[in-house]
Amino acid sequence: MSSPPPTVTLSINGRTVSVIKGTTIYQAARGIGIEIPIFCYHDRMPPLGACRMCLVHVANAPKLQTSCTLEAAEGMVVRTDTPEARAGQEAILEYLLINHPLDCPICDKGGECPLQDQTYRWGPGASRYTEVKRDFAKPVSLGPVLVLDRERCILCWRCVRFGEIIAGDDALKGFERGFGSNINTPFTLPVASKFIGNTIAICPVGALTSRSYRFVSRPWDNRTTASVCTLCGVGCAVWLDARGDDLTRVRAREAPEINDVWLCDLGFFGHSYLRHEDRLRQPLIRREGRLQSASWDAALDLVASRLRSAGSRVGVLAGPRLTNEDAYVAGRFFRTVVGTAHLDHRTDARAGSVSLDVAWGLRAPIAAIDRADCVVLAGCDVTEEYPVLWLRMKQAVDRGAVVIAVTPKALEVDRDIAHHLVHRYGEGAAVLAGLQAAVAGREPDADLGGVARGRLALAAKTLATAQRPLVLAGALALDAPDGREIWQRLGDLAARWTSTPSVMRGRGNAFGAALAGLLPERGPGGRRLEEAAGTLAAAWGATIAGGRGFSSPGMLEAASRGDLDVLYVLGTDPATDVPDGRQWTAARARVPFVVAHDAFLTATAATADVVLPTLVLPEKDGTVSNIEGRVQRLRRAAPGPGEARGDAVILSGLAARMGHPIAYSAWEEIFDEMRTLIPGLEVGAVLPLAGPGPESQPPDGVRASPRTALHGDPSDPNPVRGADGDLSPEATDAGDSLVLIPGSTLFDQGSMSSRSRAIADLAGAPWALLHPQDAGRLGITDGDPIVLTAADRSIARRALVRPALLPGQVYVPRGYDAAPLNALVDASRPVSRVRVQVLAAVAGAGDEPEGGR
Amino acid sequence: MGEPFLLKYIREADQGEYEAYVSRGGYEGLRKALAMPPEQVTEEVDRSGLRGRGGAGFPTGRKWKFLPKDPAVTKYLVVNADEGEPGTFKDRTLIEGDPHRLIEGIVIGSYAIGARQAFIYLRREFYKGRAILERALAQAYAQGVLGEHVLGSGYDLDIILATGAGAYIAGEETGLLESLEGRRAMPRLKPPFYPAVKGLYMQPTALNNVETLCHVAWILSGGAEWYKAQGSPILVSVSGHVQQPGVYEVPLGTPIREVIALAGGMRPGRTFKACFPGGSSSAILSAAYLDVPMDYDLMKLDVYGSMLGSAALIVMDDTACMIEIVARAVEFYRDESCGKCTPCREGTVWLGQVYERILRGGGQDSDIELLQGIAKGMTGTCFCPLGESVPPAIASSLRFFRSEYDHHIRTGTCDVRAHAEG
Known about the structure:
Chain A is an alpha/beta fold. In chain A, 26% of the residues lie in helices and 18% in strands. Chain A has a 7-stranded mixed sheet with strand order 15-14-25-24-23-16-17, sandwiched between helices. A 6-stranded mixed beta barrel of chain A has the order 28-32-29-31-30-33. A 5-stranded mixed sheet of chain A has the order 2-1-5-3-4, with helices on both faces. Chain B is an alpha/beta fold.
């Protein structure tokens, strides 16, 4: 038991208030409903005292005091309403306005502008200023997202401090001084940040605006919906603002347990694909080799008949773009009405990968990240994959936590990483083994995986003294050739603190798909089907298809063998998602009938036999689950285009046609049914992560430790390779080829991101990262167009030449549908090797600046 | 009262050389200090009554006593050599003329507070001073005054010479620390960032002025009693309409009239009109105040309402237009405002615009009230002393020379020169 914190008692405007010692006058006043105007103060950052707006009168003080910086003291007598305090506030507002353009009628901020509001409330009413106002060139474009108006800026420094204190990216800075002071990026270059949308949100004037929202709407014309962002896996709470049928903007909704008050730029700007003209509006049926518009009835009749005849020979590749209810209905429909056992949502996992043997997600509350004293990032590129979690880690770092990154590609948050162990792809396990040994007191006697032994020893020293470590394993580790051993090493390491590593895998609502049972042999709640079959049969009034279910790679393999008659794809794009594109191509070529639910004509949909236009998540009601297993309410913010329908509605239509109606009035009814099968399911509840792995094993079952999981899934048709990081047989004849590191990036150009203009612009041309040493040897300079070739397949990308990886490798992010990474991957080998060449100059290509982007 | 000593060797051509400095008794104070426990050195400085010569006049010994005694805590001594107050040039004189005195003072001060590293933050424009200091520092290292085992003792000290980037605000102690750490010079919030508690790199830091540390060298050399007997000398930078502008050493409390006499008096045929006694941040005094003693406490008295500041006496004779003078001072603060806080950033630019308009002949009857209003809005509302430095010149010029303002506003012209020559 800790004793209650000491308090102090003071008086504000004659009212007595007791507050915890350390509380500022501003906070104390706010606590009892006394409003004090502020501009520079933001409650997520330490006080600055720059704007001087919050001046108050304190008895016996020689002058007015800034209430945001002054700590309450015992017996203090404060007044916010004396003539002196009022005069001070008026003076500051008059100063702030002398150089402000007062262009409120055309300013995006008008109507929700603190400067406007406070001027009405506290301002002098009229200005004595008759001189010429300060003049800045405007607007200034600072990249694909941010537009700066320096005349409106009141230099509160919030945006600068956000970059210094919250994001740690120093994206915006102050330049010049005095009345010439202005916020900018160095050399007015495009802003380099993944979080710049937050600066727009906290700007107390209309100085920082977003390109996508400029002049689009007035705040009072927006209809606001509380919902959840589903673009990564964090599940940030958002406000979705719409005007008419159009989503106008996305704002952070305060959620202390998740995103606090922040979002990443994918969340802010990644939703404009909703109204893109490419959205599918009508069902499409392939006739005479071409996809042609069709009625829903025709499309559903056709699909129902093919499903009926295929039965257990149907493979269901579901993805992260379904609600929990959609996923649940899909599980029920395919397991009972269709009668197949082959359902999986993990389309991007490599065959034989340990990713397929473990439950995905974070095994600690998101809110606990900032309390960790040591974060081990094993192949987890946190800012690219779960950016808002980085903001929590940054807070932990600021409180003294150390970050140890064991990764084949340096993370961009390098300056906050105490031990950055960048290793050769495929040798992460060796680095972890060395780290583990060093923690146990056996210092490494050689460099491991390209990491100097001294650096390992230093990292181990830190790790050995950690009290509350957080161990996170990402796709770069788990899907690496030695991923299985990495997982085992991380498990052993975490066991020192009786903790378990987290599987940082899964985007969107992957966690809800797992919860709903879109996994081989798993039912709702992640229960093993063989156990749950009885309960489910009773609940669903039908028998559950038995037999071993294929995992996603298994389904492709089976399809290629001719063992499946229908591939049913919902909310995912396997043609670009599966690790090795040839596997999809082979499966598609052999399987007679492919159905795709999607919002756009993706690479998968383009080759499908029937394409059913669906609503996307911001157009749906229901629930979604995030990476920590938290169930959140998703609310429809805008209608879908044309005849697009929700996935569950489509499946209900099929069920009815197949003679086994599955009908629900609304999402709530589905959710209620799910609650009878999934203990603890509630909106707001944090449920255990569903999926294979120790947690969901039956108590009397074989407790599969990560070590026993080495044997892999016996039903997986793909050979499971050993855990020894076996890079042969090619390693000997490597020649001029480079080891391919399959990566990912926050801003890419997938089916949705390429149609959200800001994201497509932020992503830029598809790129591949090379070490300067290799680039030099290959005659490649930064920005060159290059061709990456593996066997008979090649893609064109732009070279990014940085020493962010060790030589001999090339890092290629997925997510660029026009130049897909999976064209290069050979899943039959532990690592893929690619040849890299400069794209020869072609006559007529002269519009490209030489050697530059 | 003893002989002036601060400037005693300033004109010796070889005073910047180690051998010459030692031959004139240099580094004796340091030897004495190293033979004493550090607390006793602080005590000696405290007993001397030395007050900081940077402008605030805070007792130096007391300042050092604020630092934690715990030897495990890293402490720094930082020399504020960013002399930028208009009219002040005494530190430059000391740096260029007696650099080893400064080094000696730094080592003594660092020893007293237990710092192992000291930083000199030198004004960017002091190119000559920088070359001289670099040479003197190299000599001090070569002679064992710096580095490991200072003068054979168990004490180690390094001095790092850093230069600013040309901002007046970097002379404010916390702004200086920001700049020294590599950031934009903007003042820090006090509390919690009192340098003695959280200073350079968030470690306890003693910040001392160049002249202050030169005094320290003399105090340790001659002893606190000897020093006090000298009448607490102070260097006054005299500039403006005197016959021999320059740095003069006078006992604290010397009346303005006597300092002007030392500087050769007024130019022939001209009469004293006004002065800034402590740089452009101090309130202007008129001829009626020539007998005000140049002292930290007395000048602040209500009857004078000014301050000694950095002891920069800027003298103006009857040819000076007070509107132009104040406008020039306002322009300086406008250009040097760091931009952090609203009243300083916006108030200075507004004041500048009004003065410019008055001088252009566009003055209006309401302008006096406006100037007073803007100045009032800046009084007690600014983040740091920079913005607070502007209102005194305006208020005092209006107090003594209101008729000049009225003439400018009424006629759009200046009659000062005509009066002076007529």
